[in-house]
Amino acid sequence: MDGREEPGHDDVGEGETATVDVAVAAWLAPDQRPLDWNGPTGRPFVRFRDQGLDRPVIELIECAVRRHPDRIALTDAGASVTYAQLWDGLSGLAQIIGARTRPGELVAILQPAGALFPLAMLACLAIGRPFAVLDPDAPGEWLGQVLEDARPALIIGRDDVLDRVPTGAAHVIPLTGLPRTAGADWRPTPLGPDEPACVLFTSGSTGRPKGVVISHRGLLQRVAQSINAAHINAQDRLLTVATAGAVTGVRDALTALVAGASFRLVDPQRVGAREILEALRTEAITILFAFPALLRTVLACSNERPGEALRLIRIGGDVTLWSDIDRLRAWAPKASIQLIYAATEAPMMQWFVDDACRTGEARIPIGYPLPGNRLAVVDAAGRPVPPGEVGELVVESPHVALGLWTRGGCVSDGFEAAAPGCRRFRTGDMVRQRPDGLLERLGRRDRQVKIRGARVELDGVEAALRQHPQVRDVGVLARAGADGTATLVAHVSARDGASTDLLGELKVLMRQAPAPMRPSRLYLTGEIPRLPSSKLDVRALMALDEARIRSERVAAGATAADGDAIAQAAARAWREVLQAQVHGPDEDFFDAGGDSLKAISLTLELERALDVELPLSLVHEAPTFAGLCEALRAQRKPDYVPLVPLKPGDGPSPVFFVHGAGGTVADLLPIARSLAWPGPVIGIQARGLSRRQAPHPTVEAMADDYLAAIKTRQPRGPYYLCGYSFGGLVAFEMARRLREAGDEIGLVGLFDTMTSPLGWPLPIWLACVARRAARFAAEAIAAPGARLGRPPQDGPAGVPKSAPASLLKVAASAVIASARYRPGFYPGELKLFIPAERDPALPSPQALWGRHAAALSIVPAPGAHLTMLSRPHAAHAAASLTRCLQGG
Known about the structure:
CATH architecture of the largest domain: 3-Layer(aba) Sandwich
Shape: globular
Radius of gyration: 30 Å
Number of strands: 33
Helix content: 25-40%
Strand content: 15-25%
Largest sheet: 8 strands, mixed
CATH topology of the largest domain: Rossmann fold
Strand order of the largest sheet: 2-1-10-9-11-12-13-14
Distance between the termini: 67 Å
CATH class of the largest domain: Alpha Beta
């Protein structure tokens, strides 16, 4: 803890709301440096002109569509959308929205971070309806409060999250894929520049969320500054790690699409640090935005570089330290670093970090005053303070939020009227301007903090705790850790006769609040210290908290001394991540203030301390301290690893071979060992071979997971893909997706693979399924060690042990998945390896695959379906496959 920033600690005007009266001469002079100073000054791009602020967003997007119809606009883990597809989809959705709502009515978007979120947002703007972003992961009570205030006429979202919407709250539109395009006569009917365009909900001081209303012009001003500062052009690929409900996600989506670039939005609560790092490398990301705490986690996850393409790292939303910059410079030495300072209510400044501006301070200055806004630094009475003195930062601009959305409409609460067309916003941030013009942020005037990018009102946390009828008084602090990240500490005074488990009940209560509002430390206290004015005595409460920390440290030290090395390491990591001691074996990590991002940090801390590799799901599976220690003692490896080496090789291009219906790679060993190919042969095994796991439900889900694993092993093509029986369907789908993404395919080999059996005569289909199920069961019972466990001593590591029931479960799931699968079209050649003893009653390979590929080649193989890859036929099949790999 650095002790300098404690919200509410400042003596200056805490809680006051004096009207700001700023003389013209007191406005800070805009910095004379251009927006791209110390940034990518020589990079070509199309400058966003001021007159563009009056143009509709959708008109600017349409221009990008005309320029780059076939360029990828949006991506996520499972899909890519071109600009032409984006326009078609948003037009169709806009037409539906227009038919179901009236002008001025709000449309809510309840969509996880992904490619469909920007599409829904643009559809609203295209039809002239303001949109509100709802967090699909918010607790039910919080979501209900948002809907009560928002009163949307329509809710758009994915099916699984729409289930959380109360019945009758509004009409709903499921959005699980690209909508059908609108009719030829459809044209956008956009909003005016100063109309409400977007409503974003943040923590409120009463414990209820509050909706900040941003105008169309306000959104575009953020876009303009981003493009002009970072020289963003159509060659860029932006990765933004933030929830869909943050202004960051809205800003970056519009920025990328207006510039004609490619955009990917990732929710840090759903995707781990390793996946983010992999996306940076495999997708050649050029611009990354993330909060400081998340960047620390990504850097801690691996020493690997992010890739040569990364040219810019953008940071915002929390305290950034010079030590963060040092680590980022070492991690991505060619990338510029841009610090962004803004609030949901107003954009304010950004600058490219210059190491020459360092002083002895640990924190980085927030930037220079930029064009487009007028900034002032004032005292508690609203009077300007002399240069170099500490005061509250005030912004006046036409881009300040229009107001708050309450009970279905926009009101101007919290925003003072200023010059014509402008509004004034008191940021609550205490700052001072250095002689070089940079502004330093020193703390808060009010009781508002940022926790991992989310804004939290301490008054709101107190109000939420006071909902419990046995709570008499509450005092909440935010304590800053060594990295500047805030941790919430709540002290609660109970009423007479309160339950002995009041703390446990309060933890349950706070699960209904968003994760950033949940205190990491929660204590019962006789009296909450207050000043004569009845305000919270922050200094006394801090002293009480320090005493608690010292007492717990002593108790934890005694407990750790009695525990083994695993328990001691776990207790240290717990304390490091949560800034709190473990209170007992049954304490739950998430009740103690943990969240998904902190769980990743805890796992990484434990990996370093114990020198083991752990699954990122470890803390979710064992959230109590005792359960965590038990899991660590087992030193578990990740339960499911899809890639299994079958044969080593020195060549650069592996052959990836997908399992058959049984899911294991044991069937593939004979052909893999016989293959005369310089590269390695890597088998892909199914999920579900362990009793702890469920199989993939669809071919598409398998293709997603297997491609992610393959990209980790081989980031670029050419890719050589094979699949046996059912696995050929998966290999085919993987090849299709790789080609759609622009990757090179060297070979697609399908070993006696048939398309959906639903089109076959029923007796043939039933007979085929019965024969294969009987074979799997017979082999599992006769030789479980050979088929289900590890292979012989010279076999590959990683083939899982299982039981017959697990194998049959995977096989049954594969049969269902193949029946559901509808192959698309592959614009290349398929090599069809057909056994000589194939059942003549089955449809011909040409009939099955002719309409799904540009070309087919039939490769004869000896044996039958169940023996073509076994000895002695494996050597012949391997020789044929080798010739195909070599271009024959």
